[in-house]
Design goal:
Elements lengths: L1 H43 L3 H19 L4 H24 L6 H9 L2 H9 L9 H16 L8 H20 L5 H20 L18 E9 L18 H4 L4 E3 L3 E2 L5 H9 L9 H4 L4 H6 L3 E6 L3 H4 L9 E4 L6 H9 L4 E7 L21 H4 L8 H26 L4 E9 L27 E5 L1 H6 L1 H9 L5 E2 L3 H7 L27 E3 L6 E3 L5
């Protein structure tokens, strides 16, 4: 009798202890998954419904984990989910943004310099994931010492897995950790696979490009900028003289109401170089870009890029005779100048490093605005809006020197030449603003960017009507849809009728504006920018 009571007491004690462990484990798992939601509500004033939705979505996931019998399987699976939730936390605190598909693709396409800058400037934000990490370690320790797991019944199993499926769908829709990053990884893989499948379709295509027989030397540059905001250009009326050299050039036109087609390089650049638009993005895979019509017309086609997208995505540079992967922007003007002395007709496609975060692309000579993030910032010195803006304006001042030097390199007395420039996207400089290219509701500073056109005296004399037209439309609303056709027209290139859109060329008398749209960071969604204003 006594032994029976003792056994019952021991059994009751074990059951009670196991229940306590299960409850503790449940709470720890929920904290790991829901801390990012608490953070977003506290730091970014997200709707409280987002927090409730996060809790509701994570309950079925937590129950599913509790029903995993194998401790090893539990620890491996939970560790992966914990890392995903921690990544959401890191981006929420460090970049004030949810993880997007573009982040995943960006990791695959970033250069060593970009990666090192990103880590160096965000190491302190890694501390934000510490509470999740501690809760996660405690959860795995408890699971390893736990004598059993939650009771399993057929009804409970069915309810758990059914709830998990529903929660996954809602979690992906509402960007709840860790479902959101799983969705983003899936979309990134889908986009990369589609790219690889569609690119071969461009093999052998031709634009049927033709042009008049023009005697003499010709040099044309299409330049892709990086993170250059329209608002910070002195030539556009900014309070600081950040573009004194460009402003001093004759025949320079700055377009003050130009919008990019995306807030991320990986999506915007392909649409700048091809006929692709946000409504028909796949064209950038199934057709060649701007290099092709120039090469069809006998130009030497040369790509110059300081380790950016053009040297990584080989399909974007198909049709180039030579691709130069240079160290930095400073060597580009000299390289262009030397090549113009070798070849009589050249089309240069240039991508600059320019004003890329974290705004250190300037030499001491152009360190004009102090204190700034690049010169005066560093470990233990918190970033401020002033440090950001000053460093950014220094990069613009340096860009003014680089771009004006590129123009001087093609401005030969006996040559017809032109320079078409547009930035891939803009930049948010205020620390209290979300964005950095990955906001689902982008800020105007992220897409209202710089665009310019310069022409030599010889080009201007032979295109007087077009030159006047450019000045007349410099304040009209335009976007990247116009770049491909304008780049063709600046060299008098005519493409086959099925590819033509004369109303989309800034140099055409048939030019007219149309609605401007932008591709969001998931690479799929599109929104109208003109409708927002």
């Amino acid at each position: 009798m006594y032994d029976t009571l003792t056994n019952e007491n021991n059994l009751n004690r074990k059951m009670k202890n196991n229940k306590t462990l299960n409850t503790t484990l449940f709470v720890l798992l929920m904290l790991v998954f829901c801390i990012p939601a608490f953070t977003r509500v506290l730091l970014h004033q997200d709707d409280i419904l987002f927090l409730f939705a996060s809790i509701a979505c994570c309950i079925p996931l937590t129950y599913a984990l509790l029903h995993i019998r194998s401790r090893i399987v539990f620890c491996l699976l939970f560790f992966c989910l914990m890392m995903l939730a921690g990544t959401e936390m890191f981006f929420s605190v460090g970049l004030r943004s949810l993880v997007q598909t573009a982040h995943i693709i960006g990791i695959m396409t970033s250069t060593d310099k970009e990666s090192s800058h990103f880590m160096d400037n965000n190491m302190l934000n890694m501390a934000s994931t510490l509470p999740q990490l501690l809760c996660g370690i405690a959860a795995m320790v408890i699971r390893c010492i736990q004598p059993g797991n939650c009771p399993r019944t057929r009804t409970l199993r069915i309810a758990t897995w059914a709830g998990l499926l529903c929660a996954a769908g809602l979690g992906m829709y509402m960007h709840v950790a860790p479902y959101n990053i799983i969705k983003c990884c899936g979309l990134a893989a889908y986009q990369r696979v589609c790219q690889r499948l569609l690119v071969p379709q461009a093999q052998g295509m031709t634009f049927g490009a033709t042009r008049p027989d023009i005697q003499g030397r010709e040099y044309y540059i299409m330049c892709i900028g990086e993170s250059l905001r329209a608002a910070n250009l002195g030539i556009n009326g900014y309070g600081r003289q950040t573009t004194p050299l460009l402003q001093s050039l004759d025949n320079m036109v700055s377009f003050t109401d130009y919008y990019s087609n995306a807030t991320l390089t990986m999506y915007s650049v392909p649409m700048m170089l091809s006929r692709a638009t946000v409504d028909d993005y796949d064209i950038n895979y199934t057709e060649y870009g701007i290099l092709k019509p120039y090469r069809e017309c006998g130009f030497k086609t040369i790509v110059i890029s300081p380790g950016k997208l053009l040297t990584y995505e080989k399909y974007l540079t198909h049709g180039a005779d030579t691709v130069y992967n240079v160290r930095n922007d400073s060597v580009i003007p000299g390289l262009i100048d030397s090549l113009t002395q070798v070849y009589p007709k050249v089309f240069f496609l240039v991508q600059l490093y320019q004003s890329h975060l974290y705004f250190d692309n300037f030499t001491p000579q152009y360190d004009a605005y102090r204190p700034n993030l690049a010169t005066d910032g560093g470990p233990g010195i918190p970033a401020t809006d002033e440090l950001m803006v000053n460093a950014y304006d220094n990069t613009v001042l340096y860009t003014d020197y680089i771009m004006s030097s590129m123009i001087r390199a093609i401005d030969k007395p006996d040559a017809r030449s032109a320079f078409l420039f547009a930035s891939d996207h803009g930049e948010v400089l205020e620390l209290d603003k979300p964005g950095r290219g990955c906001a689902l509701n982008p800020d105007k500073d992220e897409y209202h960017v710089a665009m310019m056109f310069w022409s030599s005296d010889q080009w201007t004399q032979t295109h007087q009507d077009a030159a006047r037209r450019l000045k007349g439309i410099s304040h009209q609303p335009i976007n990247a849809d116009y770049l491909f056709y304008t780049a063709c027209d600046m060299a008098d290139i005519t493409i086959d009728k099925k590819f033509q859109k004369p109303e989309w060329s800034l140099l055409s008398p048939r030019f007219k504006t149309h609605e401007r749209k932008i591709m969001l960071p998931d690479g799929l969604s599109v929104t109208s920018l003109d409708a927002k204003e």
